[in-house]
Design a protein that fits this description.
The chain has no helices and 15 strands. It is mainly beta.
Length: 206
């Protein structure tokens, strides 16, 4: 009789968002001076959606090109177009690292780079099966999204399954997939919003 084992990864990221984590407010001619290129250990191996924060109103149409890796460690880039107002502009991709950032032209006002509350973690980058989860809710009810994806996941992508937390901090719930599990032909990536979970253990093959 053949024994089949499963893998487990723990999602545990309660780190507050920051508008200046990757680059502090500046007016670079081309390349930003990176304050960080990877997330701190408190993110537990996960990533987030990147933001560009503008201080002025004269930079409409100028762009920031981000270079780094996605939640599975694959190389990716993204272009964030700045608005004509002082505000935070979020990208659409999840980044695990941001190794460089370049302005299309020098901004009139300061621009900083950080990350928001949209978080995610790559479980496995190839064919796998979701077997189950053990979840401890955060203080805010919300959906944890499960994606069949190997690279380049967008924050707008539709998941194959969502798991609702109840908003009572540290309340424990379980989900076990029937049969052989839920097949993910490309890979398994999980996304969520800060404080919807305090901790989640994800069980999968791969």
């Amino acid at each position: 009789m053949t024994s089949t084992y499963v893998n487990v990864k723990t999602i545990m990221d309660e780190t507050a968002s920051s508008t200046t984590y990757f680059a502090t407010a500046a007016r670079p001619n081309t390349s930003f001076t990176m304050a960080n290129t990877t997330f701190a250990s408190s993110h537990n191996g996960g990533g987030a959606v990147i933001t560009a924060t503008t201080a002025g109103s004269s930079d409409s149409g100028k762009t920031v090109t981000l270079t780094g890796t996605d939640l599975n460690g694959n190389a990716q880039t993204e272009v964030i177009t700045l608005p004509g107002s002082a505000t935070d502009t979020a990208g659409t991709k999840y980044f695990l690292t941001v190794t460089a950032a370049e302005m299309s032209a020098q901004p009139a006002g300061n621009v900083s780079l950080g990350f928001n509350a949209s978080r995610g973690m790559g479980m496995f980058g190839g064919r796998t099966a979701l077997k189950g989860v053990t979840s401890f809710s955060g203080g805010t009810a919300g959906d944890v999204a499960f994606h069949n994806s190997s690279s380049g996941l967008l924050s707008s992508d539709t998941p194959f399954m969502q798991y609702r937390t109840n908003g009572t901090a540290d309340n424990e719930t379980h989900f076990n997939a029937p049969g052989l599990g839920v097949l993910c032909t490309n890979g398994l990536v999980i996304t969520y919003t800060l404080d919807t979970i305090d901790q989640m253990n994800v069980f999968f093959n791969g």
